[in-house]
Amino acid sequence: MRAVADPAHLDRVFFALADVHRRGMLDRLSRGPASVSELAEPLGIALPSAVKHLAVLEQGGFVASRKRGRVRTYTVKPRALDAMEAWVAERKAQLNAQFDRLDAYLIAQKDKAS
Q1: Does a structural domain hold residue 2?
Q2: For the chain, what is the domain count?
């Protein structure tokens, strides 16, 4: 069985993905590194707003930043979705187990009626 993910980390992950601008930034970053202005411009948001969104993504473990001169460049962290995927997989396994038990019960009931 997998280790249980840190609830506080999962909260940050789901919160980071809960905003359309942050998801847009992740979509853009999936194509390669980008500066704050390159991320803000297509979304039509101001640079200070973009910086706040990027801070949330960084806290959620989705992006890393590097500053060179006056330009801060962001990249996607390759393992960013692992905690969320593990959490979802555990829920799916639990749900599938419940359906398997229901299926077995219904088959047993059908056999009893025959």
Answers
A1: no
A2: 1
